[in-house]
Amino acid sequence: MAKRALVTGITGQDGSYLAEHLLSEGYDVWGLVRGQANPRVSRVRKLLQDVQLVRGDLLDQGSLISAVEKVRPDEVYNLGAISFVPMSWEQAELTAEVTGMGVLRMLEAIRVCSGITASRGSAAGQIRFYQASSSEMFGQVRETPQTESTPFHPRSPYGVAKAYGHFLTQNYRESYGMFAVSGILFNHESPRRGAEFVTRKVTLGVARIKLGLATELRLGNLEARRDWGYAGDYVRAMHLMLGAGDPEDYVIGTGRTRSVRELVEAAFTAAGLDWEQHVVCDQNLHRPAEVDLLCADPKKARTQLGWEPTVSFEELVAMMVEADLRLLADGHDPDHDSSWP
Ligand code: NAP
Ligand code: GDD
């Protein structure tokens, strides 16, 4: 019988790539969708026709229990979150509820539906759980590169909420013997990335300038460094983690770090443009507390899971610029709010 996966965050970047990957592996894929008239649901229906949808919200415990009861999944991937770091300062409580407490609610739904108690641990055939942890938890980094044992020093309410979800996942593994793991994923991008994140903001900005739809691109801190990879590669790692013999946490990244400035140079160059003629640095787009440097040490994932990234930074940037040039040339321009930092 086909394995069944329940994915929260199905309308997001990673949800779409993960669903495609699991479908290609022969899974029945169910996506959790929220809201009464969520406009992103129709996009999922078009993009992922073989995914079945179930209603639920990470803010609503009962809805998660109902979803797990209905789907009876073998694997749950918890990708749902308020995922944009600047929003977490503006709506810190909502971020704590969705990105932090949402993990507790999902784990509890699995525990209750599986009949797991402190005295009666989980049996074979248990539901396996993946939590979308983040390199943002390392924050003000204590060492470089960052590994599974690097201490956390989160710099945003988002990072703090992710750290809560991370430790809770570990705790449910230790307390109840659940197969519950976290992937500590570094930044990963694609043509499906939200327009508010810096890579997509830059590639959309480049495409607008190239097509004569804009003349400048306003950005914040150009010196921050990130370890950027391709989302399609990273969802394979999620699946590998749940297929492993033992439940363990893994760092997933490329092991190479670039500045926002290098990203900008690469994207403008890919379109034959000179970035210095178009990019405006705007102090209003700087964050209250910055994560200056992220760089993964993905050795554990490589040696234990056989995971390797396949798309280089240059290929990723070129892929995103080309996709945005095509998108805008076809008359589509994703909504964006340029006041977000
Ligand atoms: P994304 O595109 O922002 O997607 C976030 C998803 O969360 C959306 O599907 C959204 O659904 C859903 N969501 C928001 N509030 C919810 C709620 N109350 N109940 C249920 N679902 C809710 O994020 P992503 O880039 O795909 O990232 C996936 C996960 O990985 C997130 O948890 C993110 O924090 C984490 N992560 C991402 C990266 C990265 O670089 N992309 C790195 C490390 C960790 P709606 O459409 O209904 O809003
Ligand atoms: N968004 C944005 N907009 N970022 C900018 C801008 C701008 O105009 N100018 C400079 N930056 C800098 C930010 O200050 C940050 O240092 C860096 O670009 C990356 O910002 P984002 O792309 O918004 O991503 P993030 O690193 O804050 O968070 C992403 O990666 C995390 C993993 O490390 C998100 O996907 C999180 O959900 C994820 O956990």
From TrEMBL:
UniProt keyword annotation of Lipid metabolism present: no
EC number of the protein: 4.2.1.47
CDD domains per UniProt: GDP_MD_SDR_e
Record field: catalytic activity: GDP-alpha-D-mannose = GDP-4-dehydro-alpha-D-rhamnose + H2O
Gene3D superfamilies: NAD(P)-binding Rossmann-like Domain, UDP-galactose 4-epimerase, domain 1
NAD(P)-binding domain segment(s): 6-320
Functional description taken from the UniProt entry: Catalyzes the conversion of GDP-D-mannose to GDP-4-dehydro-6-deoxy-D-mannose.
Protein name: GDP-mannose 4,6-dehydratase
Organism for this UniProt entry: Planotetraspora kaengkrachanensis
